[in-house]
Amino acid sequence: MRRLSVQILTVAGLVSTVAALWLPWARYGGIDVRLASFPSWVWYLGVAVVVQLVVIAAVSVEGRPGAAGYRLAARITGLVGVFGAIVTALVVMAQYDNAAALFGAAVPAVHPRPGPGGPVAIVAALFNGGALMLLAPRSAPGSGMRLQLRLG
Fold this sequence. Notes:
Layout (H helix, E strand, L loop, with lengths): L1 H21 L3 E3 L2 E3 L7 H20 L7 H26 L5 H5 L8 E3 L2 H17 L19
Antiparallel strand pairs: 1-2, 1-3
Helix pairs in contact: 1-2, 1-5, 2-3, 2-5, 3-5
């Protein structure tokens, strides 16, 4: 069940990341503004791609003997990346009303609205974080701490 959940979260994270790249991040009347029009959009794209690669690599070694150390490293790296993806998505989303940066000299005279791309990017990061959290390293039987109390 855990493996299926990890696979579902991984696919959902990948699909959501691709959707975030395709969906508009701002709307100016009838004009949809995609991610590539925003200042510093490359930072989000870079972090999102790294997170996807780490999650896919971690899932691909799931269940293999001796992969516990790799899973732990991938989990830590991936969760830092998930945090970075959320922060960079929020930074990019905050620029939805910066018409001068998005359009240059010719600015539309309409009220801007945030688009669905930013929230979908955050959901994608949360899906990836969920997949990584379910990859918690499992200890070998008998290797856990035991507390023994002897009376007498």
